[in-house]
What we know:
By secondary structure, the protein is mainly beta. Helix content is 14%, strand content 37%. Zinc ion is lined by residues 190, 192-193, 195, 204, 206-207, 209.
Amino acid sequence: MTGIEEAANRLIAVGESGRRAGRDPVNLPMVRNWLEAMGDTSPAYTEVAPPAMAQVWTMFGLNGTRSDDDPLGTMIHVLDDAGYTSIVATNCEQTYHRYLRYGDEVALTSTLESVVGPKRTALGEGWFVTTRNTWYVGEEPVAEMLFRVLKFAPKPATPPPPPLIRPVVNRDTAYFWEGTAQGELRIQKCGGCGELRHPPGPMCPHCNETKPTHVVASGLGEVYSYVVHHHPPVPGHTLPFVIALVELEEGVRLLAELVDVAPDEVEVGLPVRIDFAKVDDELTMPVWRRR
Length: 291
Ligand SMILES: [Zn+2]
Protein backbone atom coordinates (compact mmCIF):
# COMPACT_ATOMS: atom_id res chain seq x y z
CA MET A 1 0.00 0.00 0.00
CA THR A 2 1.33 3.43 -0.89
CA GLY A 3 1.75 6.27 1.58
CA ILE A 4 -1.07 8.03 -0.23
CA GLU A 5 -3.45 5.13 0.33
CA GLU A 6 -2.39 4.82 3.98
CA ALA A 7 -3.07 8.50 4.58
CA ALA A 8 -6.42 8.23 2.81
CA ASN A 9 -7.49 5.19 4.83
CA ARG A 10 -6.51 6.94 8.06
CA LEU A 11 -8.58 10.02 7.14
CA ILE A 12 -11.56 7.96 5.96
CA ALA A 13 -11.50 6.08 9.30
CA VAL A 14 -11.58 9.39 11.21
CA GLY A 15 -14.87 10.24 9.55
CA GLU A 16 -16.43 13.64 9.94
CA SER A 17 -14.14 16.55 10.84
CA GLY A 18 -14.90 18.95 13.67
CA ARG A 19 -17.44 21.65 12.89
CA ARG A 20 -16.32 24.98 11.56
CA ALA A 21 -18.78 27.78 12.15
CA GLY A 22 -19.61 30.32 9.45
CA ARG A 23 -18.37 33.88 9.98
CA ASP A 24 -21.84 35.41 9.94
CA PRO A 25 -25.40 34.15 10.22
CA VAL A 26 -27.31 33.80 6.96
CA ASN A 27 -28.01 37.42 6.06
CA LEU A 28 -29.80 39.53 3.48
CA PRO A 29 -26.88 41.85 2.50
CA MET A 30 -24.74 38.87 1.45
CA VAL A 31 -27.68 37.40 -0.46
CA ARG A 32 -28.21 40.71 -2.30
CA ASN A 33 -24.56 40.84 -3.33
CA TRP A 34 -24.64 37.23 -4.49
CA LEU A 35 -27.86 37.70 -6.50
CA GLU A 36 -26.36 40.76 -8.14
CA ALA A 37 -23.16 38.91 -9.02
CA MET A 38 -25.21 36.03 -10.47
CA GLY A 39 -27.57 38.33 -12.36
CA ASP A 40 -30.50 36.74 -10.53
CA THR A 41 -33.41 39.21 -10.24
CA SER A 42 -35.87 36.76 -8.68
CA PRO A 43 -37.90 38.38 -5.86
CA ALA A 44 -38.15 34.99 -4.09
CA TYR A 45 -35.48 35.56 -1.46
CA THR A 46 -37.14 37.85 1.06
CA GLU A 47 -37.47 35.11 3.71
CA VAL A 48 -34.93 32.49 2.67
CA ALA A 49 -31.53 32.41 1.02
CA PRO A 50 -30.81 30.78 -2.37
CA PRO A 51 -29.91 27.13 -1.70
CA ALA A 52 -26.92 27.35 -4.06
CA MET A 53 -25.34 29.77 -1.56
CA ALA A 54 -24.75 26.94 0.94
CA GLN A 55 -20.97 27.10 0.53
CA VAL A 56 -20.94 30.89 0.84
CA TRP A 57 -21.83 30.84 4.54
CA THR A 58 -18.72 28.97 5.55
CA MET A 59 -16.18 30.52 3.17
CA PHE A 60 -12.81 31.15 4.82
CA GLY A 61 -12.63 34.79 3.74
CA LEU A 62 -9.51 36.35 2.34
CA ASN A 63 -7.19 35.45 5.24
CA GLY A 64 -8.80 32.25 6.46
CA THR A 65 -7.02 28.91 6.65
CA ARG A 66 -8.26 25.34 6.59
CA SER A 67 -8.62 23.73 10.01
CA ASP A 68 -6.04 21.09 10.89
CA ASP A 69 -8.53 18.26 10.65
CA ASP A 70 -9.83 19.25 7.23
CA PRO A 71 -9.39 16.04 5.17
CA LEU A 72 -9.11 17.76 1.78
CA GLY A 73 -6.35 20.05 3.06
CA THR A 74 -4.49 17.08 4.53
CA MET A 75 -4.79 15.00 1.34
CA ILE A 76 -3.61 17.96 -0.73
CA HIS A 77 -0.43 18.12 1.37
CA VAL A 78 0.13 14.35 1.13
CA LEU A 79 -0.27 14.44 -2.67
CA ASP A 80 1.88 17.58 -3.01
CA ASP A 81 4.67 15.75 -1.16
CA ALA A 82 4.30 12.76 -3.51
CA GLY A 83 4.78 15.02 -6.55
CA TYR A 84 1.12 15.45 -7.49
CA THR A 85 1.35 19.21 -7.25
CA SER A 86 -1.42 20.48 -9.50
CA ILE A 87 -5.12 20.52 -8.81
CA VAL A 88 -8.31 20.85 -10.79
CA ALA A 89 -11.88 20.50 -9.56
CA THR A 90 -13.70 17.90 -11.65
CA ASN A 91 -17.09 17.36 -10.09
CA CYS A 92 -19.46 18.98 -7.59
CA GLU A 93 -22.88 17.69 -6.53
CA GLN A 94 -24.95 19.60 -4.03
CA THR A 95 -28.01 18.35 -2.14
CA TYR A 96 -30.30 20.74 -0.28
CA HIS A 97 -32.37 19.44 2.65
CA ARG A 98 -34.11 22.68 3.44
CA TYR A 99 -34.01 26.41 2.70
CA LEU A 100 -31.76 28.50 4.92
CA ARG A 101 -33.53 31.32 6.74
CA TYR A 102 -32.07 34.65 7.71
CA GLY A 103 -30.40 34.36 11.07
CA ASP A 104 -29.54 30.65 10.70
CA GLU A 105 -26.08 29.90 12.11
CA VAL A 106 -24.42 27.48 9.71
CA ALA A 107 -21.50 25.18 10.53
CA LEU A 108 -19.57 22.88 8.19
CA THR A 109 -18.05 19.44 8.54
CA SER A 110 -16.00 17.57 6.00
CA THR A 111 -15.45 13.84 5.41
CA LEU A 112 -13.04 12.10 3.09
CA GLU A 113 -15.08 9.74 0.92
CA SER A 114 -12.41 8.25 -1.33
CA VAL A 115 -8.98 8.68 -2.87
CA VAL A 116 -8.65 6.80 -6.16
CA GLY A 117 -5.52 6.45 -8.23
CA PRO A 118 -3.06 6.69 -9.69
CA LYS A 119 -4.97 7.36 -12.91
CA ARG A 120 -3.59 8.46 -16.23
CA THR A 121 -5.42 11.55 -17.47
CA ALA A 122 -4.93 14.02 -20.27
CA LEU A 123 -3.46 16.43 -17.72
CA GLY A 124 -1.03 13.90 -16.26
CA GLU A 125 -1.06 11.06 -13.74
CA GLY A 126 -3.11 11.85 -10.67
CA TRP A 127 -5.48 10.88 -7.88
CA PHE A 128 -9.18 11.68 -7.58
CA VAL A 129 -9.99 12.94 -4.08
CA THR A 130 -13.66 13.05 -3.13
CA THR A 131 -14.88 14.79 0.01
CA ARG A 132 -18.37 15.22 1.40
CA ASN A 133 -19.19 18.54 3.02
CA THR A 134 -22.24 18.74 5.27
CA TRP A 135 -23.71 22.02 6.46
CA TYR A 136 -25.57 22.00 9.74
CA VAL A 137 -27.85 24.38 11.58
CA GLY A 138 -27.76 23.05 15.12
CA GLU A 139 -27.95 19.28 14.74
CA GLU A 140 -29.91 19.44 11.50
CA PRO A 141 -28.07 18.82 8.24
CA VAL A 142 -29.30 21.45 5.79
CA ALA A 143 -27.12 20.88 2.73
CA GLU A 144 -24.44 18.50 1.44
CA MET A 145 -21.84 18.64 -1.26
CA LEU A 146 -19.80 15.89 -2.87
CA PHE A 147 -16.67 17.56 -4.18
CA ARG A 148 -14.07 15.81 -6.35
CA VAL A 149 -10.69 17.14 -7.33
CA LEU A 150 -7.92 15.66 -9.45
CA LYS A 151 -4.49 16.14 -7.88
CA PHE A 152 -2.03 15.47 -10.66
CA ALA A 153 1.61 15.60 -11.62
CA PRO A 154 1.63 17.93 -14.62
CA LYS A 155 3.18 16.48 -17.75
CA PRO A 156 6.47 18.17 -18.50
CA ALA A 157 6.08 20.56 -21.35
CA THR A 158 7.93 19.26 -24.39
CA PRO A 159 9.94 22.17 -25.81
CA PRO A 160 9.74 22.57 -29.57
CA PRO A 161 12.88 21.36 -31.32
CA PRO A 162 15.27 24.26 -31.78
CA PRO A 163 15.47 25.61 -35.30
CA LEU A 164 18.38 24.19 -37.21
CA ILE A 165 20.95 26.53 -38.69
CA ARG A 166 20.43 25.76 -42.36
CA PRO A 167 23.08 26.10 -45.03
CA VAL A 168 22.62 28.70 -47.72
CA VAL A 169 21.62 27.00 -50.96
CA ASN A 170 22.21 29.11 -54.05
CA ARG A 171 23.14 28.67 -57.70
CA ASP A 172 26.77 27.97 -56.76
CA THR A 173 25.97 25.39 -54.07
CA ALA A 174 22.70 23.76 -55.22
CA TYR A 175 24.56 20.85 -56.94
CA PHE A 176 26.23 19.99 -53.60
CA TRP A 177 22.97 19.78 -51.60
CA GLU A 178 21.17 17.95 -54.40
CA GLY A 179 24.05 15.47 -54.14
CA THR A 180 23.80 14.94 -50.40
CA ALA A 181 20.07 14.28 -50.80
CA GLN A 182 20.98 11.49 -53.24
CA GLY A 183 23.81 10.12 -51.11
CA GLU A 184 26.56 11.61 -53.26
CA LEU A 185 29.47 13.76 -52.14
CA ARG A 186 29.87 16.12 -55.10
CA ILE A 187 33.01 18.16 -55.58
CA GLN A 188 33.18 21.11 -57.91
CA LYS A 189 35.38 20.63 -60.96
CA CYS A 190 36.55 23.45 -63.19
CA GLY A 191 35.04 23.27 -66.68
CA GLY A 192 38.31 24.65 -68.08
CA CYS A 193 41.44 23.31 -66.37
CA GLY A 194 39.70 20.44 -64.58
CA GLU A 195 40.90 21.48 -61.09
CA LEU A 196 38.78 20.19 -58.16
CA ARG A 197 37.82 22.74 -55.53
CA HIS A 198 35.77 23.01 -52.35
CA PRO A 199 34.00 25.01 -51.04
CA PRO A 200 32.27 25.83 -54.33
CA GLY A 201 32.72 29.17 -56.02
CA PRO A 202 31.53 30.84 -59.20
CA MET A 203 34.96 31.15 -60.84
CA CYS A 204 38.11 29.02 -61.05
CA PRO A 205 40.97 30.78 -59.21
CA HIS A 206 43.49 29.22 -61.65
CA CYS A 207 42.00 29.79 -65.10
CA ASN A 208 39.06 32.14 -64.42
CA GLU A 209 36.62 29.73 -66.07
CA THR A 210 33.03 30.40 -64.85
CA LYS A 211 31.31 27.19 -65.95
CA PRO A 212 32.08 24.59 -63.29
CA THR A 213 31.02 20.97 -63.40
CA HIS A 214 31.34 18.40 -60.62
CA VAL A 215 32.56 14.91 -59.85
CA VAL A 216 31.29 12.44 -57.26
CA ALA A 217 33.99 11.85 -54.65
CA SER A 218 34.68 8.47 -53.09
CA GLY A 219 33.86 9.97 -49.69
CA LEU A 220 37.05 8.55 -48.17
CA GLY A 221 39.59 10.72 -46.43
CA GLU A 222 41.56 11.49 -43.29
CA VAL A 223 41.11 14.04 -40.54
CA TYR A 224 43.33 16.99 -41.46
CA SER A 225 42.30 19.11 -38.48
CA TYR A 226 39.40 19.33 -36.02
CA VAL A 227 37.83 21.29 -33.19
CA VAL A 228 35.77 20.05 -30.25
CA HIS A 229 32.90 22.45 -29.77
CA HIS A 230 31.91 22.80 -26.09
CA HIS A 231 30.09 26.11 -26.04
CA PRO A 232 27.82 27.84 -26.96
CA PRO A 233 24.95 25.46 -27.74
CA VAL A 234 24.20 25.01 -31.44
CA PRO A 235 20.66 24.12 -32.54
CA GLY A 236 20.48 20.56 -33.79
CA HIS A 237 23.70 19.45 -32.06
CA THR A 238 24.41 17.81 -28.70
CA LEU A 239 27.38 19.31 -26.85
CA PRO A 240 30.24 18.64 -27.09
CA PHE A 241 30.57 17.75 -30.75
CA VAL A 242 33.47 17.44 -33.18
CA ILE A 243 33.84 19.40 -36.40
CA ALA A 244 36.46 17.81 -38.62
CA LEU A 245 38.25 19.21 -41.64
CA VAL A 246 38.85 16.11 -43.75
CA GLU A 247 41.23 15.80 -46.66
CA LEU A 248 39.60 13.65 -49.30
CA GLU A 249 41.44 11.12 -51.45
CA GLU A 250 40.74 13.51 -54.32
CA GLY A 251 42.85 16.16 -52.58
CA VAL A 252 40.27 18.72 -51.48
CA ARG A 253 39.23 19.37 -47.86
CA LEU A 254 35.71 19.45 -46.52
CA LEU A 255 34.25 20.44 -43.11
CA ALA A 256 31.50 18.42 -41.45
CA GLU A 257 30.55 17.06 -38.06
CA LEU A 258 32.38 13.88 -37.10
CA VAL A 259 29.80 11.65 -35.44
CA ASP A 260 30.09 8.48 -33.33
CA VAL A 261 33.65 9.32 -32.25
CA ALA A 262 34.29 10.62 -28.72
CA PRO A 263 36.07 13.96 -28.67
CA ASP A 264 39.13 12.48 -26.92
CA GLU A 265 39.44 9.72 -29.56
CA VAL A 266 39.75 12.08 -32.50
CA GLU A 267 43.21 12.59 -33.93
CA VAL A 268 44.77 14.03 -37.02
CA GLY A 269 45.10 11.28 -39.62
CA LEU A 270 42.02 9.36 -38.43
CA PRO A 271 40.58 7.56 -41.48
CA VAL A 272 36.97 8.57 -42.09
CA ARG A 273 34.23 8.16 -44.66
CA ILE A 274 31.31 10.37 -45.57
CA ASP A 275 27.77 9.56 -44.53
CA PHE A 276 24.51 11.46 -45.01
CA ALA A 277 22.12 12.51 -42.25
CA LYS A 278 18.66 13.39 -43.56
CA VAL A 279 17.28 16.35 -41.60
CA ASP A 280 14.03 16.77 -43.55
CA ASP A 281 12.77 16.65 -47.13
CA GLU A 282 14.79 19.74 -48.05
CA LEU A 283 18.05 19.09 -46.24
CA THR A 284 20.52 16.22 -45.92
CA MET A 285 23.73 17.03 -44.06
CA PRO A 286 27.04 15.32 -44.78
CA VAL A 287 28.69 13.84 -41.67
CA TRP A 288 31.99 12.02 -41.13
CA ARG A 289 32.21 8.58 -39.61
CA ARG A 290 35.24 6.60 -38.56
CA ARG A 291 36.35 4.02 -41.11
ZN1 LIG B 1 40.12 26.16 -63.92
